[in-house]
Input
Amino acid sequence: MRLVFTFVFIITGFLANAQQIPGKVINAITGEALAYAKISLPQDTPILSKIDGSFQLNLNGKESLKISVSYLGFYTREFTISEKNKSVLLQLYPDYEKLNTVYISSPRNPANKLIEKAIENRKINDPKKALEGFTHQSYSKFLIDNDKNPIQLATDSTNSEIATIVNTARAYLSEKITLHHFNQKQGNKEEVLGLKTAGFKEPVYEVLTMDIYPTSFYEDEYSIFKTEYAGPLAKNALKNYEYRILDTLNTTRPSYLVYFKPKREKVVPGLEGVIYLDTVNYGIQKTEARIIGEIDLEIHEDYEFNPSEEVWLLQKRDIKIRPGSGGKDISVFGGNIFLGTIQRRLSISSIFDNDPIDTNLYLDATTVNYDYQLNLSPQIKETSAKIVVDPKANDREPSFWSDNRKEPYTAKDQATAIYVDSIIKTRNIERKIQVKKAMANGYYPLAFWDLELSKLFKYNNFEGIRLGIGGKTNDHISNKFNIGGYFVYGFGDQKAKYNINTSIYLNKSTNTNLKLGYTRDIKEVGSFDYLKAPPKFYLIEPRFVNINFFYNYKQYYAGLEHRIIPQLSSEIRFSQTKVFDVRDYVFLYNGKLYPEYTVSTAGISFSWEPFNNYLKTPESDILIERNYPRITAQIDKGFADVAEGDFNFLRTGLKLEYTIRRLNLSRTEFIIEGNYATGTLPLTHTFHAYPNSSRQEAVLKRFSIAGKTSFETMYYNEFYSDRLAMLHMRHQLRPIKFSSFFQPEIVLISRHAIGDIGHKDRHQNIDFKSLDQGYSEVGLEINKIISGFGLSTAYRYGGYHLPGFSQNFALKFTLNIKF
Output
């Protein structure tokens, strides 16, 4: 019965769509597609052709339909469309007299005047500017489908006794119910009341982080799918767009139909489409827009007028995303997981993807807004998360969905759950998702063990080849704690290094963990590691290869990390570190030589990213969007006579990172870092400025990988300081787009450092300088020349300029590979 029921409903829906006749409107003389031509239907609302002139006509059971097609500067023509037509090509002839009138009759484009008024009236038309506050609910339906494939009869391979009818291309379906709050003080917050993903038993939050629901056309920047476009009604819209009035529509509230198109598409990304502007208050009544580039994006928005507040409110938005020229993933879980993917960008991991993707797939996201409550100031629950998922969201009863569902839930939708469930099992999708999440943090899950990839192989001038294994247990062992560690061996120094540690999860939702561990390893002299530095996984570490001055240490440590709010995390740590084998270095203090010593410290570290946007789920907080600045700070206090400590000192570090992104895809980055120490400080615990140059005389012998925050012309072990300030400035010009796969980026770089050191005489058997004269270098990078590879040059100048050109010059390669 289940098979028959599903078959009847799907076939019924298929037959209902059989009278959809595709067509296209073109210029009869040139063959050029006419975007947004008006197609008038008898006793029905007119429709518009799309940006490529295409349209779909529904005969609604009639044998034929008489339509009228008009376009500015062209003769209006009438056509009869019959059910016998498989497709139609409608040709319009230019009316040259009207075209001349359109282009030369007025010294100023009248459409620009309308747009100026629409921009000026944003303060009364944009609900977020015109109203004190409001709430509303929305129903969103997100699916990946293929409307070109025929319906097929397939067998669910996971249950040979049940045959299910599915469209084999239907690949993903998700629904959500959201309560939106807005007030002028706290801005916009979303509360996800219901969330359901076909075929998945566990909650799936990835669709909530995809940024497929755009901002408003009233905004200066229209953001969708991790890309920002110039807003058609932005303050400087006339600089970025050209406009043309296509028609005036006489509806209940008459509107101007205005066509917009980017002026500087190669410089500033923009949309192309039409916007319906109210003839009275110039508010948005409707929008249709499209862009065809790395992705093929199509947007339709309908608004409804609220007479009490005299404002147009967004009622429905439909977004379709199809494969474009490439260069960007269009995927729910990531391009290497074929389920939920319609386009993969070219990357290292994509080379190994064996699962083909149907090129006819498209993403369809529909949102219907309802139950608006206007001009109130809703009390938004205090939370720093942009989106909060209700604890009951994933367990709603069917009645909840039937009460709130604003789009039909068809038999095809029902069949999708069965199909996706079979795909999840037969293609091992949940395992692939698990692997992807783990690898993003530098691990590869193997049953109960997450293998740490960075411990497998390394090379540096001190250890030579460094091989090993490391990792930690995962939730297959326990969801209350993990046990981890590593064991590595350096073939150059012929010594083993190891670590054992555990983290006890006190509160997973706030990432509150008790951390205990023991380490026997080596560490670079003069390094300062922030406990709460953003986690980074490097397949190849730029500086590590050429470092040759390490100290051996044994360390016991205990710490507690806690996320105060999603944007602010902290960690305190207590440690005892025994330092030994620092080459010939000896520390002289109070007449005593210390070739070996013990350092006992207590430290506290913070990382604050105040403008990051997070999704708060019942299980954890998930980063949606990273914004700047990012501030990292740390204080370490060394104690003498505590846990056998030899020295009293205080070390501090403060780092500020800020990035300015622009619509033309250029960006400017600033990194300012300061370190300051007082007390009795051996050289191992001073500060270096991240040098990245060996002392080889020939430039090519110093050829290596350039780092992002390292000084490429500064020699290793050349400078040490106990007071240090650094400034890194990088300005990347907009990419040079030769093709969709060859878009090199030119980066201009300026780096500066100044520092000093006290009691230099305490550091025996080593020669180094301070940075009291100020160090400067300038650089130029050309990135992404071939895949992720590029070239970097740098030149040293200022107080530490050296005699010969080659001594001041560095040539290296850059590596920007996406996985």
User: Anything to note?
Assistant: The two ends are 47 Å apart (CA to CA). The chain is about 10% helix and 45% strand. Confidence is low (pLDDT under 50) at residues 1-18, 102-106, 149-169, 348-352. The longest helix spans residues 411-426.
